[in-house]
């Protein structure tokens, strides 16, 4: 399908839809999504089309329907308009459309659309604008400008609050209360079916020069819908200026004192009154200022590249990471599609802990703290899951939603192409590496921030209880006199019921080792904490179990060819040539020929697995082992996960495979931002967007957290002349500038001494002047 995306070589802050094509609705709904972390809304057009998906979500507002897994419910839509001009319904599939341009301004968070529509011999100019405020998390607004160009026009416009939207047919709301107030203010109160969360949506409609335009207004209250219809006459060249300013509040909000319906209703009305004297332009300006003050200003990140899309991709990624992350409330986390679509039901995966968390650890430590606090708040569910599976400790759910829900993964998936039966989704049962992934993210946060309060109150407990899970999870193999981890799924989800998945075993070993280290030192370093945790989990027994089992845990080592077996059976499976199936960056053709059970018996890997292991534990393996495993697994990997390519980019950069690294970078960069018009239909790829930052800073920037140290070893691609960025490390804000010759590091905060590691040396970063390290010294 022909791409309609327009880029701007001279402006890395804009992205446009250059012409209207109804086949591309879902792509733009996702990549042009608006939000602020509390609320997110897809960029459905104002007028309605077949195939659209009008989604608005509030973070953390999960609800269940029957026996289905809980999901973020699709909230009532406030952006939809029905516009008739001289009896002609606005529909861009009819008439003629010229001068069309829809643009997302990444710097300000505003979405605009303009075009000229000609039909029945008359031409009309349209301009639509909308935003979700970063200055006020409950606020969203819309502005409509319509100008008849050739003759006077009779305008009929219907706008309101449409609660008839669903989650692909599932209705999560009931018990609606609809109210109309003076000055064109509409309000809908509704409640989720199972979780019984109250929602209050209040919309105020405004017109410029309302008295002179003689507006005739009528309001209708329908089932789950409240709309006002406005009739007026526009002279030729006269512009209608209409504004729709709305707020949303819920009984789950942590900034509302009272959560009952009456109080929330009054809160919505009070806000409508308070906002009455502020125009759309003033409100969007305040939001744009918040973007500058909170996101772009404090930590600028600039790539000097021969390809302008590199900087655009980084801005695009940071924009979406901001609007998808519920930084306001530690009871919530990031969904795999953020708040941009219904894909994965809004659930949190290991994507957060290994791919998204590093971005926040090093750029927004307070947000990172909220994300790891969520993992602490979900510890009860992790303990329940472990107990239900016959283990002790904390086994984190594969999919997480609200903090009290525990495992929320679906049991059944798509129909098997061979058997015709529904496929069981085993990830929720046996993809257990997420438990160690959570501990890894928690430890990385503690080491990078030195947040000892979090460590004492939450982090240590997570690490110990996940270590306790692994100690109970190990399978003793008497004939081999060792412990193994059998019947799991590793990152390669094509291989179900694998024994000794290398990534899982190494992560478990790391998790248990860290837990053992903590158990040993806690009696001396923090006896009060030791006593508290000992009451909960019998630390003496944990010390004994870890000390006994850890030395006997099998971790797959490189074989005689220096290949680490992905699992016990992988290297004995059938080889096939994947190249003929990997067309246009998809694996669709592979699944046209093989079922998942059949792929399970092939040397085909879904995503970085052994490569991810080698990347994360880089100091444990010789470079020759890394190179041999790259050569082996790279042609066997389909990258049928958006998580994969960023790992391959970073690993290739570490190996000095510059062309390969940049090629994988471009592939990953373009998953959402590129010309594939179907790649993002269900929402953007949250972890892949974080991966753009990881590739930039960790891959090409060469920055890496390693054994409690911050390492820098730049691998700038040939297309990049300079990389300029900021990071937080040990509560100090560091400014890095890298080019072909050197790295300069400046401690901007300058309130404490820190050091960085380069060329296997520690370099103290002065507090009064920049540290300059010649590039030659780093790469020797």
UniProtKB/TrEMBL annotation:
<dbReference type="Pfam" id="PF03632">
    <property type="entry name" value="Glyco_hydro_65m"/>
</dbReference>
<keyword id="KW-0328">Glycosyltransferase</keyword>
<feature type="domain" description="Glycoside hydrolase family 65 C-terminal">
    <location>
        <begin position="704"/>
        <end position="762"/>
    </location>
</feature>
<dbReference type="Pfam" id="PF03633">
    <property type="entry name" value="Glyco_hydro_65C"/>
</dbReference>
<feature type="transmembrane region" description="Helical">
    <location>
        <begin position="686"/>
        <end position="706"/>
    </location>
</feature>
<dbReference type="Pfam" id="PF03636">
    <property type="entry name" value="Glyco_hydro_65N"/>
</dbReference>
<feature type="domain" description="Glycoside hydrolase family 65 central catalytic">
    <location>
        <begin position="316"/>
        <end position="693"/>
    </location>
</feature>
<keyword id="KW-0472">Membrane</keyword>
<dbReference type="InterPro" id="IPR005196">
    <property type="entry name" value="Glyco_hydro_65_N"/>
</dbReference>
<dbReference type="InterPro" id="IPR037018">
    <property type="entry name" value="GH65_N"/>
</dbReference>
<dbReference type="GO" id="GO:0016787">
    <property type="term" value="F:hydrolase activity"/>
</dbReference>
<keyword id="KW-0812">Transmembrane</keyword>
<protein>
    <submittedName>
        <fullName>Glycoside hydrolase family 65 protein</fullName>
    </submittedName>
</protein>
<keyword id="KW-1133">Transmembrane helix</keyword>
<dbReference type="InterPro" id="IPR012341">
    <property type="entry name" value="6hp_glycosidase-like_sf"/>
</dbReference>
<dbReference type="InterPro" id="IPR017045">
    <property type="entry name" value="Malt_Pase/Glycosyl_Hdrlase"/>
</dbReference>
<keyword id="KW-0808">Transferase</keyword>
<dbReference type="InterPro" id="IPR011013">
    <property type="entry name" value="Gal_mutarotase_sf_dom"/>
</dbReference>
<feature type="domain" description="Glycoside hydrolase family 65 N-terminal">
    <location>
        <begin position="18"/>
        <end position="252"/>
    </location>
</feature>
<comment type="similarity">
    <text>Belongs to the glycosyl hydrolase 65 family.</text>
</comment>
<dbReference type="InterPro" id="IPR008928">
    <property type="entry name" value="6-hairpin_glycosidase_sf"/>
</dbReference>
<dbReference type="InterPro" id="IPR005195">
    <property type="entry name" value="Glyco_hydro_65_M"/>
</dbReference>
<dbReference type="InterPro" id="IPR005194">
    <property type="entry name" value="Glyco_hydro_65_C"/>
</dbReference>
<keyword id="KW-0378">Hydrolase</keyword>
């Amino acid at each position: 399908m022909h791409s309609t995306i327009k880029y701007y070589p001279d402006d890395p802050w804009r992205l446009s839809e250059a012409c209207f094509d109804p086949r591309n609705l879902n792509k733009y709904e996702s990549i042009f999504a608006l939000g602020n972390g509390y609320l997110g809304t897809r960029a459905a057009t104002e007028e309605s089309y077949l195939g659209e998906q009008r989604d608005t979500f509030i973070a953390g507002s999960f609800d269940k329907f029957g026996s289905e897994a809980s999901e973020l419910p699709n909230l009532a839509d406030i952006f939809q308009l029905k516009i008739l001009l001289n009896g002609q319904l606005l529909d861009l599939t009819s008439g003629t459309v010229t001068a069309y341009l829809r643009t997302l301004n990444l710097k300000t968070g505003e979405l605009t659309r303009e075009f000229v529509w000609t039909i029945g011999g008359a031409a009309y100019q349209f301009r639509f604008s909308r935003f979700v405020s970063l200055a006020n998390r409950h606020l969203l607004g819309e502005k409509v400008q319509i100008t008849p160009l050739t003759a006077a026009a009779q305008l009929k416009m219907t706008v309101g609050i449409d609660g008839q939207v669903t989650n692909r047919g599932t209705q999560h709301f009931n018990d609606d209360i609809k109210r109309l107030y003076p000055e064109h203010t509409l309000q809908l109160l509704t409640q989720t079916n199972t979780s019984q969360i109250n929602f209050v949506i209040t919309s105020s409609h405004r017109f410029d020069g309302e008295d002179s335009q003689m507006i005739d207004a009528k309001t209708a209250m329908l089932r789950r819908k409240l709309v006002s219809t406005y009739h007026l006459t526009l002279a030729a060249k006269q512009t209608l200026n209409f504004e729709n300013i709305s707020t949303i509040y819920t009984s789950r909000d942590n900034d509302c004192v009272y959560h009952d319906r009456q109080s929330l209703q009054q809160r919505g009305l009070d806000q409508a009154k308070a906002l009455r004297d502020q125009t759309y332009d003033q409100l969007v300006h305040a939001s744009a200022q918040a973007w500058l003050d909170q996101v772009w200003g404090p930590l600028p990140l600039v790539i000097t590249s021969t390809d302008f899309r590199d900087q655009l991709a980084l801005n695009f990624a940071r924009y979406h990471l901001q609007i998808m992350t519920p930084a306001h409330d530690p009871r919530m986390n990031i969904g795999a599609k953020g708040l941009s679509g219904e894909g994965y039901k809004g659930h949190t995966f290991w994507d957060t802990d290994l791919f998204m968390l590093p971005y926040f650890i090093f750029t927004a430590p307070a947000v990172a703290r909220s994300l790891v606090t969520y993992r602490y708040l979900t510890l009860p569910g992790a303990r329940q899951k472990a107990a239900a599976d016959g283990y002790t400790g904390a086994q984190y759910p594969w999919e997480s939603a609200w903090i009290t829900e525990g495992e929320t993964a679906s049991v059944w998936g798509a129909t098997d192409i061979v058997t015709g039966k529904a496929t069981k989704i085993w990830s929720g049962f046996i993809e257990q590496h997420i438990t160690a992934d959570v501990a890894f993210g928690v430890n990385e946060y503690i080491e990078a921030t030195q947040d000892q309060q979090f460590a004492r109150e939450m982090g240590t407990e997570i690490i110990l209880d996940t270590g306790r899970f692994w100690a109970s999870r190990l399978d003793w193999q008497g004939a081999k006199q060792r412990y193994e981890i059998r019947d799991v799924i590793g990152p390669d989800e094509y291989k179900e019921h694998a024994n000794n998945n290398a990534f899982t075993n190494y992560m478990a070993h790391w998790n248990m080792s860290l837990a053992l280290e903590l158990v040993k030192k806690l009696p001396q370093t923090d006896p009060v904490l030791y006593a508290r945790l000992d009451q909960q989990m019998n630390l003496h027994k944990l010390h004994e179990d870890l000390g006994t089992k850890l030395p006997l845990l099998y971790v797959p080592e490189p074989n005689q060819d220096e290949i680490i077996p992905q699992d016990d059976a992988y290297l004995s499976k059938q080889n096939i040539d994947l190249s003929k199936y990997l067309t246009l960056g998809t694996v669709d053709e592979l699944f046209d020929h093989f079922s998942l059970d059949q792929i399970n018996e092939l040397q085909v890997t879904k995503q970085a697995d052994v490569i991810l292991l080698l990347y994360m534990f880089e100091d444990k393996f010789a470079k020759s082992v890394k190179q041999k495993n790259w050569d082996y697994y790279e042609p066997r990997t389909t990258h049928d996960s958006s998580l994969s390519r960023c790992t391959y980019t970073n690993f290739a950069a570490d190996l000095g495979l510059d062309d390969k690294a940049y090629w994988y970078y471009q592939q990953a960069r373009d998953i959402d931002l590129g010309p594939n018009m179907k790649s993002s239909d269900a929402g953007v790829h949250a972890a892949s967007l974080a991966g753009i930052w990881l590739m930039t800073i960790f891959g090409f920037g060469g920055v890496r957290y390693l054994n409690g140290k911050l390492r820098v070893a730049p691998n700038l691609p040939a297309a990049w002349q300079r990389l300029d960025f900021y990071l937080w490390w040990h509560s100090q804000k560091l400014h890095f500038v890298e080019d072909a010759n050197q790295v300069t590091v400046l401690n901007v905060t300058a309130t404490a001494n820190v050091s960085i590691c380069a060329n296997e040396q520690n370099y103290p970063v002065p507090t009064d002047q920049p540290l300059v390290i010649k590039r030659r010294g780093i790469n020797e």
